Amino acid sequence: MSVNADVPEIILVGIKGFLEGEHLILKLGESCVVGRSRKADISLKKARKFRERSDWPKLAKTERFLSVSRRHLRIHFLHPDLVEIEDLSKNGTLVDGRRVDRIGLTDVRTTPHEIRVGSMEKLRLEWHGNGQAGADGGDDPPTH
Fold first, then answer.
1. Cβ contacts of 54 within 8 Å, gap of 6 or more
2. Spatial separation of the C-alpha atoms in residues 87 and 48, rounded to whole Å
């Protein structure tokens, strides 16, 4: 039996821009940073679609690329029913089309959310299969 089998998880998936195809799974209690810095957990500079471009040095100086801050946003998976998104940038972060400074999402189990970073990058935040809540939405383990 796996010790972590019941640990809730969320997943961030790049759906547009250089981040398209990138993904990161967060377990309950973890956090991540999204940005253009190589030190970011989800990084434009480390993204496959960016690295594969032969003109990447020129791209790294474009307004599109620079519209993403080095540390653009932080995502905290605080509780199975609470994911906090914190804007760390000067250019702003949009969640489901609304500009946010900090927001707590309480419906991630049932509703995916779209996060726009900079002018072109989009991510989808959604519940991941591990630790899926039961039909009643509770966290209680099944009884045998």
1. none
2. 24
- β-sheet bridge partners, residue 122: 16, 116
Query: Is residue 124 a contact partner of residue 13, using CB atoms and an 8 Å limit?
Result: yes
Report the pLDDT averaged over residues 114-119.
96
Helix (H) or strand (E) holding 105: strand 102-105
Residue 38 CA to its chain's centroid (Å): 16
Could you count the other beta carbons within 10 Å of the beta carbon of residue 84? 15
Model confidence pLDDT, tens digit, residues 23-57: 999 999 999 999 999 999 999 999 999 999 999 99
Q: Which residues contact 2 (CB under 8 A, 6 or more apart)?
A: none
The one-letter amino acid code at 126 reads: E
The amino acid occupying position 68 is V
Residues 6+ apart with CB under 8 A from 144: none
Token readout for 58 is 């020129």
C-alpha distances out from residue 32 to 23, 39, 89, Å = 12, 11, 15
